[in-house]
Amino acid sequence: MLLERILALATTLVLAGTVPVAVIAARGFRGAPFGSVLRPLPLVFLAYVALNANVVVGVAVPPVYDIVMSAVATVSALVAAAHVLVLLTERRKL
Predict the structure, then answer these.
(1) pTM value?
(2) CB neighbourhood size of 83 (10 A)
(3) Is 85 exposed, middle or buried (0-12, 13-18, 19+ CB in 10 A)?
């Protein structure tokens, strides 16, 4: 149990550290075509931080919370992947 909390803490700290970098990248590339790929990443990282935070704190959350946070992270990652696909196939507006 202690090892699980240590690993969850490490994961949460790393993910929390990437949130500001993702926000800076999303804002920095806002006008570029690649900006649409970076726009959902802060939400992905925040959802994963929220998923791991309850393990670090040691608070029990309802299963609906885990389902919603997982769904937010998954859908946001799928949106970013769809934007990558559009960008790589060059099917965007000029």
Answers:
(1) 0.84
(2) 19
(3) exposed
Dist. CA 42–CA 4, nearest whole Å:
25
Structure tokens at 8: 């969850």
Give the pair of three-digit tokens for residue 12. Answer: 């949460």
Q: Decide: residue 55, CB within 10 A, 0-12 exposed, 13-18 middle, 19+ buried.
A: middle
DSSP state string for 28-55: HTTTSTTHHHHTTHHHHHHHHHHHHHHH
Q: What are phi and psi of 79, to 5 degrees?
A: -65, -45
Q: How confident is the model over 30-53, as pLDDT tens digits?
A: 988 889 999 999 999 999 999 988
